[in-house]
């Protein structure tokens, strides 16, 4: 350091504005004109101006090591040329906090690797390579192909979702056996099968195409329900799973409220237009795949598209209708007012049956679309988060 004492002082004056503006004067007994700067054993011109600090102690450095000591050798030749040519202006030498712009020495120092962005520079006390924020939004700018973890579903929503899978299955199969005892949708007797039940007709049509199957009015209920002549058992199983369905519905609503997921289900002004855009997309996606033509997905900026939002928001409403119509059928005397809401006893049965069909129609495309969308969507309903890649090409 002795060989480069004044050079380090000159370096610190130039770098004072960026690194450490408060300098401690060490050479109080000598003026700047008396101090000779020596670099590579070659004398250089005297430094003009007022006294400057020979060394700048920096907190955090071991011993008497000073800032810029490691870089003096790298810029000594440029400093010698600078001083020999007349050096910086007096104002720049006297005001470390305001160096003159365009100084060659400053440019040389600024171009040194790590001079301005050194993450461990003790003089700056600032970490380097920080991620810049978007000045418009204040949010960090995402790097290309950066993976982001997105929180999707509350734990109670996920729990109730998976519990509803076996519960709805049990409700449907037991409900079909109850329906067999007294069908609500009837027609005139068929002259061949003598059936009056539409569901029995469906079973007969399926059995006629299955080798060895008995095509009668019982086939549908024996294969899709708990069987015929099993009303008492079907009622017991049905009501057991009704109470479980009610409990999971409460958990689902609670999870939406606690996790804030209900906000994604609220209707929006553009919901109708967005819904038709999604219908147009789904109607053409298969033909365009066959024709190998591009068919871009409508731009979605929310958690769900319009069709998803409408379908998911309808689930609590459908569940409430199923419970209300079921209680109206179960206790038509005690809950006479509830029965009147559906018009009559048969009106409650019709609503109950339609809700069951709605659950089935919702479940089939829901499962298909989840499988088509990929593992990330399935995982989000298991662990509660999904992984997205921002930036880059995601085709």
Could you explain the architecture of this structure?
β1 (38-39) and β2 (42-43) form a beta hairpin. The model is unreliable at 1-47, 49-56, 63-75, 89-130 and 391-395 (pLDDT under 50). The chain is built from 13 helices and 4 strands. α5 packs antiparallel against α8. It has a two-stranded antiparallel ribbon. Strands 3-4 form a two-stranded antiparallel ribbon. With 395 residues, the protein is mostly helical. The protein starts with a helix and ends in a 5-residue tail after the last strand.
Short note summarizing the structure:
The chain has helices at residues 5-15, 69-84, 90-94, 104-110, 155-181, 198-207, 219-224, 231-259, 271-291, 306-330, 336-341, 345-373, 375-383; strands at 38-39, 42-43, 146-151, 385-390. It is mainly α and 395 residues long.
Describe the protein's topology.
Elements: H1 5-15, E1 38-39, E2 42-43, H2 69-84, H3 90-94, H4 104-110, E3 146-151, H5 155-181, H6 198-207, H7 219-224, H8 231-259, H9 271-291, H10 306-330, H11 336-341, H12 345-373, H13 375-383, E4 385-390
Antiparallel strand pairs: 1-2, 3-4
Helix pairs in contact: 2-4, 5-8, 10-12
Series of H and E elements: HEEHHHEHHHHHHHHHE
Compute the separation of the termini in Å: 59 Å
Question: How many beta-strand runs?
Answer: 4
What structural category do the secondary elements indicate?
mainly alpha
Q: What is the number of helical segments per DSSP (H or I, 4+ residues)?
A: 13
Share of helix, binned: 40-55%
Strand content: under 5%
Biggest pleated-sheet summary: 2 strands, antiparallel
Taking all Cα atoms into account, the compactness measure Rg is 40 Å
Which term fits the overall shape? globular
User: Which stretches of 5+ consecutive residues score pLDDT under 50?
Assistant: 1-47, 49-56, 63-75, 89-130, 391-395
Mean of residue pLDDT values:
74
- In spatial order, strands of the major sheet run 1-2
């Amino acid at each position: 350091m002795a060989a480069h004492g004044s050079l380090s002082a000159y370096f610190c004056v130039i770098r004072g504005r960026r690194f450490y503006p408060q300098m401690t004067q060490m050479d109080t007994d000598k003026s700047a004109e008396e101090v000779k700067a020596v670099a590579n054993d070659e004398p250089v011109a005297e430094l003009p101006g007022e006294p400057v600090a020979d060394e700048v102690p920096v907190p955090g450095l071991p011993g008497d090591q000073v800032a810029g000591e490691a870089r003096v050798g790298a810029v000594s030749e440029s400093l010698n040329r600078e001083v020999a040519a007349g050096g910086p202006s007096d104002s720049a030498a006297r005001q470390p906090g305001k160096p003159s712009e365009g100084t060659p020495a400053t440019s040389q120092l600024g171009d040194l690797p790590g001079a301005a962005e050194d993450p461990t520079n003790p003089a700056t006390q600032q970490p380097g390579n920080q991620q810049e924020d978007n000045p418009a939004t204040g949010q960090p700018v995402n790097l290309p192909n950066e993976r982001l973890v997105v929180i999707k579903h509350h734990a109670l929503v996920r729990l109730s979702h998976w519990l509803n899978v076996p519960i709805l299955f049990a409700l449907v199969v037991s409900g079909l056996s109850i329906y067999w005892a007294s069908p609500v949708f009837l027609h005139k007797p068929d002259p061949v099968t003598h059936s009056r039940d539409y569901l029995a007709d469906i079973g007969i049509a399926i059995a006629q195409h299955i080798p060895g199957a008995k095509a009668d009015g019982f086939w549908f209920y024996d294969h899709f329900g708990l069987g015929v002549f099993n009303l008492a058992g079907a009622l017991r199983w049905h009501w057991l799973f009704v109470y479980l369905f009610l409990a999971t519905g409460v958990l689902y609503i609670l999870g939406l409220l606690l996790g804030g997921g209900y906000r994604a289900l609220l209707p929006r002004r553009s919901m109708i237009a967005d819904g038709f855009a999604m219908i147009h997309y789904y109607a053409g996606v298969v033909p365009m795949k066959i024709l190998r033509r591009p068919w871009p997905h409508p731009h979605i900026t929310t958690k769900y598209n319009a069709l998803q939002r409408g379908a998911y928001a309808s689930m609590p409403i459908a569940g409430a209708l199923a419970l209300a119509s079921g209680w109206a059928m179960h206790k038509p005397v005690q809950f006479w007012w509830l029965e009147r809401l559906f018009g009559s006893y048969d009106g409650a049965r019709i609503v109950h049956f339609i809700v069951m069909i709605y659950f089935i129609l919702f479940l089939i495309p829901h499962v298909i679309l989840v499988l088509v969308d990929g593992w990330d969507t399935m995982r989000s309903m298991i662990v509660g988060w999904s992984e997205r890649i921002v930036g880059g090409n995601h085709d």
